[in-house]
Structures are given as C-alpha cells and as structure tokens.
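Whiteboard transcription, Tuesday session. T.W. wrote the structure tokens on the left side:
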C-alpha cells in the first residue's frame, strides 16, 4: 500500500532551497518551476552547468549562490531539495532539516526523503500527480504520458463551465452538491 499523502503546494508563497547546480539539480528545479513558474527558489552550488543556467534564465526571481552549501542557507526555507554528488553532505543536511522541522527531499535517495516528487499531468487547470511509492519512476513517467494522451484538451472548457455554474449556485449546500453531481454525471469517464 502507498501510504504517502499527496498535497498541492503554493510554491510562490514558500521558500525552496535546491542544493546543487548540475544535471539532477536542473531536473528538480525544472520540476518546481514548470509547475509553479513564480516559485521562490534559491540554488546553491560551487558549479552550475550551462544547461542549468540556460533554463533558469527564464525565471528572474530565482536566486543563484555560486559557492558550497553553508548551514545558514537553511534559514528561512520551507522546503529543501538536495541534488549534489555528495552523499555525506546530503546526510548532514537531512539531519539538520529534521532537527529544524524543515521538509527535505534528497534526489535518488528515498531513505532520506520526507517527500517525493511525482510525475505530473497538466491540462489547463487540471493537474494530476502520480506516485508509484518509489517503486518505478519510469512507470510513473509512462502513466503520465498515457494520461496526457487520453485526457482531452477540452477538459479546460469543462472546468471553466463548472466554475461558472458553481458561482451562480446559491443557498443550500446539499442542493448545490446535488446539482453539481447531476451536471457532471455524463462527463468523460462514464461508468
Ligand atoms: C523516490 C523518488 C524520490 C524523488 O526523487 O523525489 C525517486 C527516486 C529515484 N529515481 C531514480 C531514477 C529515475 N528517476 C526518474 C524520473 C523521475 N523520478 C521522479 C521521482 C522520484 N524518483 C521519487 C519517486 C516517484 C514515484 O514514486 O514514482 C519523477 C517522477 C519526478 C521528478 O523527479 O521530477 C521523475 C519522472 C518525471 C516524469 O517524467 O514524469 C527516471 C526516469 C527518467 O529520468 O527518464 C529514473 C531512471 C530510471 C529508473 O530508475 O526508473 C532512482 C535511481 C537512481 C540510480 O539508479 O542511481 C531513485 C532512487 C531509488 O529508487 O532508490
Ligand atoms: N545525472 C543523472 O541523471 C543521474 C545522476 N546520479 C547521481 O546523482 C549525483 C548528481 O549527479 P549530477 O547532477 O549529474 O552531477 P553534476 O556533476 O552535474 O552536479 C553535481 C552538483 O553538485 C554540486 N555540489 C558539489 N558539492 C557541493 C556543495 N558542497 N554544496 C553545494 N553544491 C555542491 C556541484 O557544484 C554540482 O553543481 C551523482 O552522484 C550521480 O552519480 C544518479 C542517477 C542519474
């Protein structure tokens, strides 16, 4: 059983630190910023790869610190993602995060993670996060591609229509639920 609890974070209101500036850091930073383009992200690393710098150039709010990690880098953070090639550093950061009640993800090291990143399907306002409980990120990627394929682009019109109806419904909560259930009965996934 997958016991992970999924939530959807507002990364523009949180402060995220990515430790590292190489390939894996780019993967994690792009997962953050493609989902939340206004995410407040700081990266710290003595070396940033050109691909990383090129990607981050589109996000002017992102802060880069070109030096090794320092403990003070954890001050004021909400989330920390470790993506260097230094396992001991990751262990130290992970322990410090635990002591400070900071949520920490260590790329490719499930044992040191408080949370995992998921595979994300995006269609307008619809977002689906997929987790395989760490069993197979590759299978998660395949499932994402499948869902991207089968969910129609028109889902956005459906969502906007429902939002409009929802705003017009006044009064009794139970009645509201009844009307909304009725309206969505025949939508896409007919049983
Ligand atoms: C536990 C977790 C922790 C975390 O990193 O958050 C984790 C752990 C590990 N990943 C590894 C490898 C790969 N990861 C990917 C890809 C993704 N990995 C992601 C998440 C997660 N990866 C979390 C679990 C998510 C879940 O439950 O499903 C995704 C979904 C999200 C993201 O990272 O943005 C993103 C797909 C995004 C997309 O495209 O949809 C690929 C495929 C590829 O790149 O093509 C490979 C190579 C092939 C393979 O191994 O499958 C290894 C072995 C490293 C080694 O061999 O050294 C470990 C460590 C281990 O398993 O022990
Ligand atoms: N590239 C990949 O897709 C995969 C990588 N890995 C492993 O993940 C690790 C990272 O891989 P890459 O990102 O490709 O390496 P990389 O060499 O591209 O990046 C490593 C980054 O860590 C930074 N770093 C090193 N010491 C630091 C410190 N004290 N403080 C802050 N930053 C520091 C470096 O400056 C660099 O930016 C490696 O151990 C690699 O074996 C595992 C599976 C796949």
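and on the right, the sequence the group agreed on:
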């Amino acid at each position: 059983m997958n016991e992970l609890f999924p939530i959807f974070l507002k990364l523009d209101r949180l402060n995220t630190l990515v430790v590292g500036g190489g390939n894996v850091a780019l993967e994690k930073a792009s997962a953050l910023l493609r989902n939340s383009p206004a995410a407040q992200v700081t990266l710290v690393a003595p070396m940033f790869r050109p691909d990383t710098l090129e990607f981050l150039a589109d996000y002017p709010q992102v802060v880069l610190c070109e030096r090794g990690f320092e403990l003070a880098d954890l001050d004021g953070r909400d989330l920390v993602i470790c993506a260097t090639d230094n396992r001991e550093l990751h262990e130290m950061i992970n322990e410090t995060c635990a002591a400070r009640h900071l949520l920490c993800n260590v790329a490719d090291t499930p044992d040191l993670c408080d949370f995992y990143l998921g595979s994300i399907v995006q269609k307008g306002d619809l977002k689906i996060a997929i987790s395989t409980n760490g069993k197979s990120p590759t299978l998660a990627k395949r499932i994402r591609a499948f869902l991207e394929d089968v969910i129609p682009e028109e889902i956005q019109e459906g969502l906007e229509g429902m939002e409009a109806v929802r705003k017009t419904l006044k009064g009794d909560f139970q009645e509201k639920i009844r009307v909304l259930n009725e309206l969505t009965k025949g939508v896409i996934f007919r049983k």
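Someone added at the bottom: Residues 35 and 76 are 22 Å apart (CA to CA).
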